[in-house]
């Protein structure tokens, strides 16, 4: 990890023992979620390495990616399907779909199929939105 690191060392009342504290400050990226972080120490009294571990668990609003799951360049009369890929922590509370800013109320899963598309859909804007307790993420795709 790269970040600001510092440490302090305090001589305890027995006059022989030190208490050392090491701190690292960094701005985590979502890709670091679930990353194991460890801190190891040695000293002149004990040759054995002491190590502590913690798993980084980030809290963030949904990151949404919209994928057209069937072939590109659909023709009039084809079905067009989309999948809303979502990364979030905590878990997603709800998913919403929009077609040209009209909320498709009945669509609540991570999949959307537009049945038998017509020319009216050409250039239409499909959006997927996901919400958790942290916030909302949205993405869009032009038909």
Quick summary:
The protein is an all-beta fold and 143 residues long. It has strands at 4-11, 18-25, 36-41, 50-55, 60-68, 80-89, 94-99, 102-103, 111-114, 125-131, 136-142.
Describe the protein's architecture and organization.
The protein has 143 residues and is mostly beta strands. Helix content is 0%, strand content 51%. It has no helices and eleven strands. It has strands at residues 4-11, 18-25, 36-41, 50-55, 60-68, 80-89, 94-99, 102-103, 111-114, 125-131, 136-142. The strands form four sheets. Strands 8-7-10-11 form a four-stranded antiparallel β-sheet, with no helix packed on it. Strand 7 (94-99) and strand 8 (102-103) form a beta hairpin. It starts with a strand and ends with a strand. The model has no long low-confidence stretch (mean pLDDT 90).
Features:
mainly beta; 0% helix; three-stranded antiparallel beta sheet; four-stranded antiparallel beta sheet; single chain; 143 residues; 11 strands
Evaluate the radius of gyration: 25 Å
- Tell me the overall shape: rod-shaped
**Roughly what fraction of the amino acids lie in strands?**
over 45%
* Major sheet characteristics: 4 strands, antiparallel
Order of helices and strands: EEEEEEEEEEE
- The structure class reads mainly beta
- Helix share bin: under 10%
Q: What is the straight-line distance between the termini?
A: 41 Å
Q: What topology does this entry show?
A:
Elements: E1 4-11, E2 18-25, E3 36-41, E4 50-55, E5 60-68, E6 80-89, E7 94-99, E8 102-103, E9 111-114, E10 125-131, E11 136-142
Antiparallel strand pairs: 1-2, 3-4, 5-6, 6-9, 7-8, 7-10, 10-11
């Amino acid at each position: 990890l790269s970040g600001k690191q510092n440490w302090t060392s305090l001589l305890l009342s027995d006059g022989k023992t030190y208490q050392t504290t090491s701190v690292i400050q960094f701005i985590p990226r979502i890709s670091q979620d679930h990353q194991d972080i460890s801190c190891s120490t040695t000293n002149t009294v004990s040759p054995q390495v002491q190590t502590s571990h913690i798993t980084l668990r980030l809290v963030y609003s949904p990151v949404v990616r919209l994928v057209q799951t069937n072939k590109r360049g659909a023709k009039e009369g084809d079905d067009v399907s989309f999948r809303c890929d979502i990364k979030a922590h905590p878990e997603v509370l709800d998913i919403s779909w929009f077609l040209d800013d009209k909320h498709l109320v009945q669509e609540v899963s991570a999949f959307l199929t537009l049945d038998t598309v017509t020319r009216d859909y050409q250039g239409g804007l499909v959006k997927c939105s996901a919400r958790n307790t942290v916030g909302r993420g949205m993405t869009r795709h032009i038909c």
